[in-house]
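Quick illustration, no need to memorize.
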Amino acid sequence: RQDVGDVAMRQSAYVGKDTSVQNVTSLLNHFDKVVDNGGELTDAQAKIASQLINSRHLTRTLFENGTETTKHAVDNISQNTVKQNSTFVEKTQTETDSVWVDYGYNQSTLRMSGLKGESSDNTLTVGASKMFGNHIVGVAASNKNLSWRESFAGADKSVRTSGYGVDAAYIYNLNGYNIYTFLGFDWLKNHNFTKANVNQWSMGAGVNKWFVINKDGTLAIQPNIAVQYVHTKSADVNTTDTVAIRDLNVKQLVASI
């Protein structure tokens, strides 16, 4: 057989193709050793080997059997949490002594090196915050539904993730400067080829302050500096009946001004 990388190199590329090529090359080399040593492939192993070796568009076959779409979906979950954390802190600070409801919807389209990605994310959050002098405490619970879809060379793959999350925040006002910290945890489930649990926790801190820029006080700005850490961990995920991801972890450290 021809080298996987040589064949795929002549065809169009997508984000993650190099990783797929490395994984498939290692897999086929393992199959070769099994056969060379007098062994036999299982039905599942023979199926994936046949798909790869007989494929007329190897790069598309790599995409269909690859793991990158699931990895990108987990990246999307992490990025969505960064946005939600910022909204949660803002609501905690502005909706004091009340119960509030926030619905967030985000839809975006990305084109990445031959691959088209689309996200559609819905989050419904119910929260409450209470002020005690210079102190504000906030809590919230969320229902999340996130979808990630990718297409390449006529092939489509999608991953849906849903579940619940809880958040807590503390804000202290020091001479007009709002110093805050927050913590969150999500219990999610990946609805892929098979279901897999996804646990995510996040924490962060920041500071902001209102500055009035006209005499009558009707115009003001609030600069905000924050840093967040988000850790998303998925259980073993079967992306097809023959391909799985083991111990998928995504860690993000995000600073914003």
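The longest helix spans residues 68-94.
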